[in-house]
Amino acid sequence: MKLKLKNVFLAYFLVSIAGLLYALVQLGQPCDCLPPLRAAAEQLRQKDLRISQLQAELRRPPPAPAQPPEPEALPTIYVVTPTYARLVQKAELVRLSQTLSLVPRLHWLLVEDAEGPTPLVSGLLAASGLLFTHLVVLTPKAQRLREGEPGWVHPRGVEQRNKALDWLRGRGGAVGGEKDPPPPGTQGVVYFADDDNTYSRELFEEMRWTRGVSVWPVGLVGGLRFEGPQVQDGRVVGFHTAWEPNRPFPVDMAGFAVALPLLLAKPNAQFDSTAPRGHLESSILSHLVDPKDLEPRAANCTRVREWRLGTSSPCIEPGQPCLGWSRRTDGLKREGS
């Protein structure tokens, strides 16, 4: 056993001596290890530089958040609303005015179906805080609903919407609020918003940058959950509607907006009171745009931003059947619901 350990120790000693001698010999030989060392040193230097840059960025104060455009730089939205006297008129106008007050750079054109301005509407406009123009025009007797006629026999709000168009075109007629029409070159968009609908704020911001005629879906209309354009590759290729899909423009009044410069450039574009049922929108849009050039909004018409709800008149006589109210030739006419 002693002999074997001695042999192992001797072999280890000889190998160590040989390695030491080899190392001593190599000390005097030229070495090509300098380039790898330089490359490693450069990598360390680059990492140190990147660390210094990151530390400087962390010490730098965060940038200020992007500021929205000043209201004066935004195109103006002209909202045209026909209205008439009824039990729920004030409730619906208050609701609509509250929505409009959330939208910057908006001008409300409220048009009464009456012989003259009423204290209710005048007071509501004055208290709204909105930039407004108060207009009045009475629907001709021949276009009013007769006793027993359904509401679709005559298009409603035609004279009132056309009165607003006349004011925008510089033909005057304002009885309150801002009386001067927009000056030449004004950038804006015109939207026809009935007082019995519900609107989201997003809708107005999407229509603001309309170049020609923009469109979007409308909820709870025409017997459907929604009605509106069908879009493919960013272009309108059809319409989802249940009522006369072959109309030139099968859209709801609340489903489109028109650029103000386009409307002013087409002085003959207005609503036709003799248009067949469901063709009132087409009567003006046919003068303004080709269906293929419509501008889809609301995420390519996949989102509903506006709903046709209407407000039911309340029951005001306890113990009696609920009674609705509708517009007749003599003002307000009560009828069974």
From TrEMBL:
<dbReference type="GO" id="GO:0006024">
    <property type="term" value="P:glycosaminoglycan biosynthetic process"/>
</dbReference>
<comment type="similarity">
    <text>Belongs to the glycosyltransferase 43 family.</text>
</comment>
<dbReference type="GO" id="GO:0000139">
    <property type="term" value="C:Golgi membrane"/>
</dbReference>
<comment type="subunit">
    <text>Homodimer; disulfide-linked. Interacts with PXYLP1; the interaction increases the 2-phosphoxylose phosphatase activity of PXYLP1 during completion of linkage region formation in a B3GAT3-mediated manner.</text>
</comment>
<keyword id="KW-1015">Disulfide bond</keyword>
<comment type="pathway">
    <text>Protein modification; protein glycosylation.</text>
</comment>
<keyword id="KW-0325">Glycoprotein</keyword>
<keyword id="KW-0479">Metal-binding</keyword>
<keyword id="KW-0808">Transferase</keyword>
<keyword id="KW-1133">Transmembrane helix</keyword>
<keyword id="KW-0333">Golgi apparatus</keyword>
<feature type="binding site">
    <location>
        <position position="196"/>
    </location>
    <ligand>
        <name>Mn(2+)</name>
    </ligand>
</feature>
<feature type="glycosylation site" description="N-linked (GlcNAc...) asparagine">
    <location>
        <position position="300"/>
    </location>
</feature>
<keyword id="KW-0472">Membrane</keyword>
<keyword id="KW-0812">Transmembrane</keyword>
<protein>
    <recommendedName>
        <fullName>Galactosylgalactosylxylosylprotein 3-beta-glucuronosyltransferase</fullName>
        <ecNumber>2.4.1.135</ecNumber>
    </recommendedName>
</protein>
<dbReference type="GO" id="GO:0005975">
    <property type="term" value="P:carbohydrate metabolic process"/>
</dbReference>
<dbReference type="InterPro" id="IPR029044">
    <property type="entry name" value="Nucleotide-diphossugar_trans"/>
</dbReference>
<dbReference type="InterPro" id="IPR005027">
    <property type="entry name" value="Glyco_trans_43"/>
</dbReference>
<keyword id="KW-0464">Manganese</keyword>
<dbReference type="Pfam" id="PF03360">
    <property type="entry name" value="Glyco_transf_43"/>
</dbReference>
<dbReference type="GO" id="GO:0050650">
    <property type="term" value="P:chondroitin sulfate proteoglycan biosynthetic process"/>
</dbReference>
<dbReference type="GO" id="GO:0015018">
    <property type="term" value="F:galactosylgalactosylxylosylprotein 3-beta-glucuronosyltransferase activity"/>
</dbReference>
<feature type="site" description="Interaction with galactose moiety of substrate glycoprotein">
    <location>
        <position position="227"/>
    </location>
</feature>
<dbReference type="GO" id="GO:0046872">
    <property type="term" value="F:metal ion binding"/>
</dbReference>
<keyword id="KW-0735">Signal-anchor</keyword>
<feature type="active site" description="Proton donor/acceptor">
    <location>
        <position position="281"/>
    </location>
</feature>
